[in-house]
Amino acid sequence: MDLAGYLGYAGSVARTATLLQAGFTSNGIRTSVAAGEIRRLRHGVVALPGARADFVAAVLANGTLTCASAAPFHGIWRLHEPERLHLLCAHGSAPGAVVHRASLVPPEFPQPVAGLTDTLLHALRCLPPVDAAVMVESALLQGRTALDYLRQRLPGNRNGAARAVLDLVDGTADSAIEVVARLLFRARESTPRRRCSSRGSGLSTSCSKAS
User: Fold this and answer.
1) Where does the pLDDT of residue 202 fall: very low under 50, low under 70, confident under 90, or very high at 90 and above?
2) Which residue from 11, 59, 112, 155 could staple onto 64, CB 3.0 to 4.6 Å apart?
3) Of 48, 62, 56, nearest in space to 4 by CA
4) Helix (H) or strand (E) holding 39
5) Which of 6-10, 148-152, 156-160, 200-204 has the lowest mean pLDDT?
6) pTM
């Protein structure tokens, strides 16, 4: 596989250190840049012409896509496209992006995308409950994770809200909309209903919560 081919395999952008580890040489990288086959975005980072903007942003931040930004890559449902990019960065900053720090499971592929476990855990801690539930439901439906597995990785009081989201999913929905409809139905059923009665001519009405 030539350098351009490997870059395509790696997501269209990579650090030169990654290319050197893959067996390419510094001279070969310089030659490809001079020939216009690849572009040098900055010292230590090269990309194919027309490289994916989200992958470029991730590599330039020395990070990987995660949370809602990684959902399409993993083939799981996403209710909303995030307004800002979500990146897993072990250190440093990424102006304009939502930065996640913790990582439990390294990715198994060369593209700059966090593994599925990290993607789901970040979503559970970061996104609105419905959005996170949709992502987890999709992964459960595909048999790629388990509720107990995720719950065990969300210990302590600080993860209480994230664990509560797991109670909203069961891996049986056929679509993201079905997950939303299920949650709306549960919310309606859990809201106390008011029972009203009219007295006399109907001008006076009293209401009380139904038990």
Assistant:
1) very low
2) 112
3) 48
4) strand 39-42
5) 200-204
6) 0.85
As a whole number of angstroms, the distance between CA 142 and CA 148 comes to: 16
**DSSP alpha helix (H) spans, the chain:** 3-9, 16-21, 26-34, 53-60, 67-74, 116-126, 129-141, 147-152, 160-166, 176-190
Q: Is there a contact between 154 and 162 (Cβ–Cβ < 8 Å)?
A: yes
Measured CA to CA, the distance from residue 34 to residue 110 in angstroms comes to 25
For 24, the token pair is 């390419």
Nearest to 44 by CA among 60, 32, 31: 60
The answer to whether 89 and 101 have CB atoms below 8 angstroms apart is yes
Q: In Å, how far are 28, 67, 106 from 57, measured between CA atoms? A: 24, 15, 19
The pLDDT assigned to 195 comes to 56
